[in-house]
Design brief:
elongated, about 20% helix, 3-stranded antiparallel sheet, 5-stranded mixed sheet, about 120 residues, alpha+beta
């Protein structure tokens, strides 16, 4: 028995409509205009990943915007947020500063904003 899954590729501005047929023989992928679309569809079906963007509390009570330095497993997002919510950033913070090293092995949580001591 096969299952058809429709996706919109987000790897480039084309936004290809991709159709993935999942069956006992594996995945049949159609509709991608480039190889990146095929890889995106395979990953989205087997182990979806996302860049996590959020905020971290600062020691002065403010917030600083952060993101993961690479995509992480979508299934891990809630667990990672529990870790992030316990973190307090030391000021000053500059864009690119590592807020949590190895949030996931090889993936840091980095600042995407500047915050100064007030």
């Amino acid at each position: 028995m096969s299952e058809i899954i429709r996706l919109t590729c987000i790897e480039c501005p084309l936004g290809c409509d991709i159709e993935v047929t999942k069956n006992e023989n594996g995945l049949d992928i159609k509709g991608n205009s480039c190889p990146r679309g095929k890889i995106y569809a395979q990953n989205e079906i087997t182990m979806p990943k996302r860049v996590l963007t959020t905020t971290v509390r600062c020691e002065n009570g403010g917030l600083v915007a952060v993101k993961t330095s690479a995509p992480v497993n979508k299934s891990d997002l809630l667990d990672l947020m529990q870790v992030i919510n316990k973190c307090v950033a030391k000021l000053p913070v500059k864009i690119g500063d590592v807020i949590i090293k190895d949030l996931v092995e090889g993936v840091n949580l980095i600042a995407t904003d500047n915050r100064e001591v007030k």
